[in-house]
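Practice problem. Given the sequence and the SMILES for adenosine monophosphate, write out the predicted structure.
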Amino acid sequence: MSTLVIAEHDNAGLKSGTLNAVSAAGALGGDIHVLVAGQDCAAAAAAAAALPGVAKVLKADSAEYGHQMAEDLAPLIVRLASDYSHLLAAASTFGKNVMPRAAALLDVQQVSDIAAIEGPDTFVRPIYAGNALAKVRSNDAIKVLTVRTTTFDPVAETGGSAAIEELAGTGAKGLSRFAGQELTRNERPELTTARVVISGGRGMQASDNFGMLEKVADKLGAAVGASRAAVDSGYAPNDYQVGQTGKVVAPDLYIAVGISGAIQHLAGMKDSKVIVAINKDEEAPIFQVADYGLVADLFQAVPELDEQLG
Amino acid sequence: MKVLVPIKRVIDANVKVRVKADKSGVETANVKMAMNPFCEIAVEAAIRLKEAGTASEIVAVAAGVQQSQETLRTALAMGADRAILVKSDAILEPLAIAKLLKAVVEKEEPGLVILGKQAVDNDNNQTGQMLAGLLGWAQATFVSKIALEGEGLAATREVDGGLEKVILKMPAIVTVDLRLNTPRYASLPNIMKAKKKPLDSVTPEDLGVDVTPRLEILEVSEPPGRKAGIKVGSVAELLDKLKNEAKVLS
Ligand SMILES: Cc1cc2nc3c(=O)[nH]c(=O)nc-3n(C[C@H](O)[C@H](O)[C@H](O)COP(=O)(O)OP(=O)(O)OC[C@H]3O[C@@H](n4cnc5c(N)ncnc54)[C@H](O)[C@@H]3O)c2cc1C
Ligand SMILES: Nc1ncnc2c1ncn2[C@@H]1O[C@H](COP(=O)(O)O)[C@@H](O)[C@H]1O
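Answer key:
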């Protein structure tokens, strides 16, 4: 048994999901190899080689992988696949984009967003916005998996010393071209790995009001998230969305402010260790999952919280 | 340009889904069904391309049981021109659906296929990417903006770090995210008109596709519940509990 983890990286370093994916590979047992396909990606490959448990890093440093477009990356994964029993990536927008394409080319039915590994071919995954858990067995020769990062603790960033093997590229397909990006920049921790998350919903009423949450977040070392309604209303950027169709988070502390607690939102945060809800409607469903509920007007409670945190 | 829109019939997103007592699946008897919300966005996107004069014909396709016809009729009432049902009572996994859609694409030869990013029943998020792979076409997933530019398609994708813009060679596959548009409701006159629009039916056998599942569902269970906690009376009490009881703040 051996697993190839497809690294998510920006050439200069690994994205956090890669650490969770390697952790899941460890739970499968067997050798772990990591594919780092990029352009000028020596630093990312070195970072992958330093992960404990990794036996080998496959580095494909070639222009066609500069932006890790699925059209060019999937053929490389397919070329390597026959050496492995499992192919695995984080269930991030990167993994969700490339893995099904590779799976189809391999004639494999991917298992998406696995939350538990019960054996080399048996996995548990949430369905229906987390309203049910499906335990499935894959009968394909190669298992293609994306993993829910919140249920596999990241491996350490140092301790390993894997060999790095250079691979030739597969050549550009010329199907698609990267034409730019607008990344949300802030100094706060990443939403999916933060120890504390404070999220705002439609109750925030305006994007300017998210400033109140940011002030609290900075005092708590927290990331800021949002409900779909807040993102749709333009109060927060799309990558803040927590939920069934956004990001899944499971921090030690999740603070939901002006969020009603729709099932699609809960799907993305109900595995948090401690949940706090601040909502003026005492009937709001969020209180059914909150460990600590504060029935209050957020425009009073949040500034108070900010003040009392000193 | 012909646009193909694959749509799925799912349990309505507002229904509280219940696991069956025998753990074989979720309760579907007497449960309200609807078009997958992301598919509604895909249909709307196709209609807007037609209204802009870019698309000439919109073909909606659904693979599934006979009742999926109702979902196809909804797409026709929204503005699709015709519909194809790939009728099957089998459990259809994304790989099988992608193969069925590939066969339909080869027959219909659309310039663009617009899918939802995810079906909210199984939350797979695979079909569009698989179809793109099988066809060897370009793909733009999780799209919040599309525009035809010269010979290609410019798409803005919602990714974990923010937004990304890609240019695709046509023909292409797009999977849509929530922010692309707000789908219209079908008006009563259009619902009436939709009854007369063509709806063809084929089977996986007609298309020469083997849909045998690759995954065995061993068990579907209820997730561990959370118990509701307590209500606190003030911000001060909240902070005290977080520090001294839950110990998540220092
Ligand atoms: C296909 C699909 C996918 C979806 N995916 C997601 C997803 O990934 N993530 C997600 O979050 N949602 C998702 N949704 C949407 C979800 O169903 C809800 O509509 C959404 O979560 C509601 O957001 P909200 O709680 O901010 O808004 P609302 O439901 O409008 O709630 C606002 C809350 O704010 C409270 N409030 C208002 N003013 C104040 C005040 N001054 N002080 C205190 N409280 C106040 C109100 O009492 C209310 O409870 C999805 C829906 C569909 C159909
Ligand atoms: N049975 C089906 N028939 C037609 N299209 C489908 C079907 N299942 C999924 N799709 C399409 O694929 C998208 C993503 O579904 P999934 O990969 O299952 O999450 C949906 O939004 C539809 O556009």
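Check your answer against the key. The helical segments of chain A are 16-28, 42-49, 70-81, 93-105, 210-220, 228-232, 263-266, 298-308.
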